[in-house]
Amino acid sequence: MKTHTILITGAGSGIGAGIAGQLARDGHHVVVTDLSAQAAESVARAIREAGGSAEAHALDVTSDESVATVLRALSRPLDVLVNNAGLQHVAPLEEFPMEKWELLVQVMLIGVARLTRAVLPGMRERGFGRIVNIGSIHSLVASPFKSAYVSAKHGLLGFSKVIALETAGTDITVNTICPTYVKTPLVDRQIADQARTRGIPESEVVSQVMLKPMPKGVFISFEELAGITAFLISPAARNITGQTITVDGGWTIQ
Fold this sequence. Notes:
By secondary structure, this protein is of the alpha/beta class. Helix 1 (about 15-25) packs across helix 8 (about 220-230), helix 3 (about 65-75) packs parallel to helix 4 (about 100-125) and helix 6 (about 185-200) packs across helix 7. Strands 3-2-1-4-5-6-7 form a seven-stranded parallel sheet, with helices on both faces. Helix content is about 45%, strand content about 15%.
């Protein structure tokens, strides 16, 4: 197996940290980035202590300067970009602060474009690149009180398809993984927010809002998302591009 240098955004916790750990165990060099330098270094240190290869950088995906600084500081050329950074805010539109609405789109859509734009020249020059975007079930369906998140994640699918076409002339692929709920700190906060917004107990948020639409009825694991990412960056997937990989326990087949 060819090993790669893989930059993951939002990897200081949750899905990003889980993917980083698994890909490092597979032998890849992982660039752990997060808005929090401390969180990124904590994940990278754990990877190194387990025998893996990792470096950490603070990265603000809403800043051109931050993106450029990190890319200049990398210890080796970048082969794979995993756009994972995200955040959530749950509120009816009339109560949704517009600065928060804009921030969600900045991080999860414009930030993806910003970072992808920055890494593509190097990938083109080296004749290889893999871009994996972490979307969501909310790239495909909607839920109330999540207008900014749903808008950003829907936009991500269109963006991925366009860049897949723009890079079709070289060995670069762009795909989006769309999971339902993964048990992360972000989802834990959503449970409390949804309970408050809907006026129901937190236990009902899990059973009636999050898991009820899924015939499988279980949360998605980090290992599943890491395994799909590993496949998408492998030689077997060189002709898979512009695709939406839906990991939803049967949600959207009903």
